[in-house]
Design goal:
Blueprint (H helix, E strand, L loop, with lengths): L15 H14 L19 E2 L65 H12 L5 E12 L9 E17 L4 E6 L4 E6 L11 H13 L7 E7 L9 H17 L5 H16 L6 H8 L4 E6 L5 E5 L4 E7 L11 H14 L10 H7 L5 H25 L3 H17 L6 H11 L4 E6 L7 E7 L3 H16 L4 E5 L6 E2 L2
Parallel strand pairs: 1-12, 4-6
Antiparallel strand pairs: 2-3, 2-13, 3-6, 3-7, 4-5, 7-8, 9-11, 9-12, 10-11
The protein binds alpha-D-galactopyranose.
């Protein structure tokens, strides 16, 4: 491992001949490599309470110049090895995934807040120059409508002011080379030789490249750094944020128009078919289509989107229980399969198509577990629509009550809560000024979300964190979050 000062990070133990040989082999195979030589950001310890109001995000990007205009000779003209990596550096590096599990496991979990300046600085440390493009893809918190997206139902998430950032420069060839600053991973692949090795965060980037190419996009290579401040495994969609920002980067580098809904769908396909998680469309769609100070009502069947303003009198507080679940290994896929199976039995396309009346009429046909799962989905869809309407009317009290009902349904009927989530929600609700609280995301651990009166938000955050720590012995983190814009370039 090299020190921080070495911009190349070449492992000193490798001789130059061995490096060249290994480099040639690896170029051929286009495998993933990982290094451990990138300086971490300032650590953010556990148990933190973030109470400061973040600065608003810079607005939309101007038109990008194409640094390598297409010369009309077709893709192969760009396949030359025009390496812009720092001179003298063995670009292929040596690895060591150490059997890392196939998730964004540690990514960004330790990071402090990230902005354009941070990610551009890390790019500069790595490449010795300023990035040509910077993009961000936000995480999300779901306010209501849980486990309804894959049942063709309704959800009401908002994009949060924590994101995955990429700073990069285009390449003339079709190599993609990525330094993941937070995990110190390095990965690379050639766009003509995509192979799923199932290791490391690079698979999300590769999966999106695969999905875009499947759709017929001609992609160009790039090299850059990825930095994030979305807590991982917390139910705030760090993986969707990485997928969507990757799509945004490919659109910029490859010069095709940014269509947020289409890109969200292609990012979801990457997650479903490359990563292997059968998630619904919510996470990618909100990361791509979020709007500052708004929640987004999504009809997950028609993909009709309605921006719903968040009243300035309230704050959304994310309450991280400090407990984690593995989405791939969790009961998520099993819940989804059970819902689909029940829809088949009812001979409908999805559980969304079962009305409350029909459910009640046929309730006796179902076993107890199925009855509870279906009841959750039907009632949650109804709550989500009512919650969106309440928000539009500025009726935050009704919104809060619906959040609590949602939590009870997820806990008792869908059975995806956990003791830590239940404790967090209970503690939050016992504090003055809390209008409502519930678990958020897939469940089994991760975060709860609370809606609180704006003026008590900071006190609430501190007091809830303290009480939760004392009662559960888990280390919480609390974020007062603003709704942000969806993925975009940040000039
Ligand atoms: C995860 C999935 C989403 C959604 C939620 C539960 O976040 O990625 O698609 O199903 O769980 O609402």
């Amino acid at each position: 491992m090299t020190g921080r000062g070495d911009p190349c990070g070449c492992p000193p133990s490798i001789t130059s001949t061995a490096r060249q040989k290994r480099s040639a082999q690896l170029k051929q195979k286009a495998q993933i490599k990982e290094t451990t030589d990138f300086a971490p950001l300032g650590a953010r310890g556990p148990g933190s309470v973030e109470t400061s109001e973040p600065a608003p995000w810079p607005q939309k990007a101007g038109k990008l110049q194409d640094p390598f205009p297409v010369d009309g000779k077709g893709p192969t003209a760009h396949h030359k090895w025009l390496n812009t990596w720092p001179a003298s550096c063995d670009r292929t590096r040596v690895q060591s995934s150490g059997g890392r599990s196939f998730q964004l496991d540690a990514m960004s979990a330790q990071s402090g807040r990230v902005d354009r300046h941070t990610v551009a600085g890390i790019f500069h440390q790595t490449f010795g120059t300023q990035p040509e493009i910077v993009a961000r893809g936000p995480g999300r918190v779901n306010l209501i409508g849980e486990h309804t997206d894959y049942n063709d139902g309704f959800v009401l998430p908002m994009a949060i002011d924590r994101a995955i950032w990429v700073a990069l420069r285009p390449r003339r060839d079709r190599w993609v080379m990525v330094h993941f600053n937070d995990t110190k991973q390095y990965g690379e692949f050639h766009l003509d030789a995509l192979r799923n090795t199932g290791e490391g965060s690079i698979e999300y980037v590769k999966g999106v490249a695969w999905s875009l190419q499947e759709e017929g996009f001609f992609l160009r290579g790039w090299e850059g750094v990825v930095v994030g401040d979305v807590p991982v495994g917390a139910g705030l969609s760090s993986s969707a944020a990485l997928e969507v920002v990757t799509a945004r980067v490919f659109a910029a580098v490859s010069q095709f128009p940014w269509d947020p809904v289409k890109m969200a769908l292609l990012s979801q396909r990457a997650e479903n078919r490359w990563v292997g998680v059968q998630c619904g469309i919510m996470d990618q769609l909100i990361s791509a289509c979020g709007q500052a100070d708004h929640a987004l009502l999504i009809d997950c069947r028609s993909l009709e989107l309605q921006q719903v303003p968040l009243p300035p009198s309230v704050r959304v507080v994310i309450l991280d229980t400090g407990t984690r679940r593995g989405l791939v290994d969790s009961a998520y896929n099993e819940r989804r399969a059970a819902c689909e199976h029940t829809a088949e039995q009812f001979r409908v396309r999805a559980l969304r198509d079962i009305s409350l009346e029909e459910f009640e009429r046929r309730a006796a046909e179902m076993d107890e577990t199925t009855r509870k799962r279906v009841r959750h989905v039907i009632s949650e869809n109804d709550r989500t629509l009512r919650a969106a309407e309440a928000l539009r009317q500025g009726d935050v009290a009704t919104f809060g009550r619906l959040m609590v009902e949602s939590h009870v349904s997820l806990r008792d009927d869908f059975e995806v809560s956990s003791p830590a989530l239940d404790a967090m929600v209970e503690i939050a609700l016992s504090h003055p000024g809390c209008l409502g609280a519930r678990m958020t995301g897939a469940g089994f651990g991760g975060c709860a979300v609370a809606l609180v009166e704006a003026e008590i938000a900071e006190t609430f955050a501190q007091n809830v964190a303290e009480e939760y720590r004392q009662k559960t012995k888990h280390e919480p983190a609390v974020y007062i979050s603003r709704a942000s814009d969806g993925a975009d370039l940040v000039p």
